[in-house]
Design a protein that fits this description.
228 residues; alpha+beta; 2 domains; 4-stranded antiparallel sheet; 12 helices; DNA_mismatch_repair_MutS_core
Length: 228
Amino acid sequence: PMGRRLLRAWFLRPIIDIDVINNRLNTISFFLCCEEVMSALRETLKSVRDVPHMLKKFNSPSSSCTSSDWHTFLKCICSLLHINKIFEVGISEHLANKLQHMSIDLVEKANSSITAELDYVSNLVIGVIDVQRSKEKGYETLVKENLCDELDELRMVYEGLPDFLEQVSANENASFPFSLECRKAPLIVYVHQIGYLMCFFDEKISEALLIGLQDFEFAVSCVLFYFV
């Protein structure tokens, strides 16, 4: 995590600038005087993750980004935006004067770092990624409908594949030259680097069927596969 790396860097390279040290001590003293603001910030920061690492994962062609990753990213962005709200609502006039008296520019730093661009990023992700539907469908990442006609068409084709392949499997079973006497109809399956196989789920296959399937056997666990 980013916080752990930062803390380790502070221990390896201690701060020696007296002004920075005094500023941090003043900040600690300020937060001890306003526990409600400190508690709100602590609770909000729990949802803030290592954004650069997340962006690197999203941008990597070898990484697999799930709906959970996008949900975490959105929650992180919303938490960062909420920090400004905490300062806006939680810092009273008295506390603002105290900040000014102690020369603490905490609110200014937050406002300069947490800008409206984060709000734009949040709206952009919400408008493009369908997080909830990705969970329901079990997909890793799903773009919302009506954003791209080509994607919508490809999605329709992809979602229609199970029915299409089931029909292909039934046609293949019907075209075999020998009878398949099984309690459950075999399935045509695809195994990477092996090819298309016929999968039988019966515990015991009849002798007649075994004769018809000689030299085709490929077994995995308790399931028998036969090359087709």
